Amino acid sequence: MGKFQPGQSGNPSGRPPKSKALSDLLIKALNRTVPTAKGRISGKRLLASLVSEGLTTGKVTFPGEEKPSTIGVKDWIEFVKWAYGYLEPAPTKVYHAGHDGEGLTIALEYVTKNYDTDTGLSPGSADHPQEPG
Questions:
Q1: How far is CA 11 from CA 3, 6, 7, 15, 49, in A?
Q2: Tens place of pLDDT for every residue, the chain, 133 residues?
Q3: pTM of the predicted model, to two decimals?
Q4: Is residue 12 situated within a structural domain?
Q5: Residue 11, domain member (yes or no)
Q6: Residue 126 falls inside a structural domain
Q7: Domain hosting residue 39, numbered range
Q8: Is residue 114 part of a domain?
Q9: How far apart are CA 89 and CA 86, in angstroms?
Q10: 3-class DSSP state of 50
Q11: What's the domain count of the chain?
């Protein structure tokens, strides 16, 4: 009897499909290094730098550009809303109090990440300065 049966694949599981999810493609692209005026930098670091610059100054200096682009007030407000919605934790509990015709009190309870308030980085992250051991 031969190694392969007629009409049967030599690899019954088949080749695994390549991921076509946008998030997977973006992660792959952002892991590459890109040239900037200050040298090569990972796409992730460049994106973080551009987002930080835009949020804090209302301007973004894109690679290859000499002058920063100004973000309009309405766009900047939407950008800040997006950042807070994405970066801040969602409430873990919401409490409602009040009856019809009375005031309504809503209290939100948050569970925050453990992070260094001086650096804004999570302990153990690749960028967090390690304490001498």
A1: 12, 13, 12, 8, 46
A2: 556 677 766 666 777 777 678 888 888 999 999 888 888 999 999 999 999 999 999 999 988 888 999 999 889 888 888 888 888 776 666 566 666 656 656 665 655 555 555 555 555 555 555 555 4
A3: 0.52
A4: no
A5: no
A6: no
A7: 22-89
A8: no
A9: 8
A10: helix
A11: 1
